[in-house]
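Researcher: I'd like a structural prediction for the single chain below. Treat it as a standalone chain; there are no partners to consider.
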Amino acid sequence: MSSCLYCQKAIEEQLSWDTLFRREYRRFCYACSQQMIWINTLHCSRCYRPQADSAVCLDCVRWENSTYWSSKLTRNVSLLSYNEWAQDFVARFKFRGDVVLAKAFEQELKRMYARNFNQHLIVPIPLSEKRMIERGFNQSEVLARCIRTNITDVLVRIIHEEKTSKKLRWQRVAGRSRPFEVTNQKSVMSKNVVLVDDIYTTGATVRKAATVLLEAGATSVSSMTLFRS
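Model: Treating it as a single chain, here is the predicted structure.
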């Protein structure tokens, strides 16, 4: 009998051909699984915001109506909604250093990448030097390496900004700071890029990263995240 990766409770299951050959996919107990909200087909076609249909949401319309931000990010895809369970998951994974939790979604991340991007360069969103010292690891890089070990780590964060979780929505959207730089332009020239991060909230962070990647010669920039807030 296996244990839930999240709460360590035993995973009870009836033996069948499916459980016999796919036991590695049973990573969560029933109680934890019931709290996860997987994003289904009803979401914004541009950013995966859960909604009643697949129309482009108002946030994405506002981004594309901006003369500065228009066409920076092709689209975003995400696995789960950022509900209360997800918030606790992120607190343990990101802020308390329980890095092994990322492995819980490894297969789903690989499938999402293959389904939507396939041969895109995988670029994790970097941390500032200060934040890296505080945490000791970059959660976005951990998620990126769950998809593929061969990633393209060409972004550096040159400006340490206040945590986006402390900013109001309008502050995230309106900010035009340039916190990122590309360290190797040749590696992204004429390539399609997918940025990897833990949470998509307004999309400001990935659009700032996309801006410098496009300026460095990338053909297109999209993003994929574990959660969609």
